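Human:
Focus on the backbone:
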Amino acid sequence: DSNDDIEDVSLFDADDDVSRRSKKSKIRHPVASFFHLFFRVSAIVVYLLCELLTSSFIACMVTIILLLSCDFWAVKNVTGRLMVGLRWWNQVDDDGRSHWIFEARKVSAQGSKTSSEAESRIFWLGLITCPMIWVIFAFSALFSFKVKWLAVVVMGVVLQGANLYGYIRCKVGSRKNLTSMATNYLGKQFLRQVRFPGFWKPS
């Protein structure tokens, strides 16, 4: 499938010597970590408080969309590469075919990781939690008949969901691998139930 090509290639060269000396628990990219959360959290806060701050729906909508757009660009192009060594993008080859590229930084020869555990937690926590919040906002706007806000929350779901999907693909591999992982997990659960049948007994 030409649309789902995956390449395991090295990312931008980094100062490997500095990264080896850094502790795993230390945040080595504080600015990237800050902006990884700043734009997405700010968009959520503005959405929650905009009706209290101003009566202009257009001003709120433009502000939220700008924050979401800045977040999408920053997470896709900067924070993912710096904080967890992952990157994804789309490129068109000479034949005009579109290819989605999902990269993961290769482990160094000494086997040491270039990303710290603290940054990894911050990255994945922000990446997973915020799209879930926008999904809740979408259902809330739908069931409360706030049609004018529906376009805004859908934009939040799409932009942040796209980054979440892209980085999950970078982390675990192709769609085929995602399917095989789910199949293996369900298979293990089934075998566990066969080996150790129910822990309860009928009365």
Remarks:
- Residues 30-105+126-192 form one domain.
- Strands lie at 86-92, 98-104.
- The first strand starts at residue 86 and ends at 92.
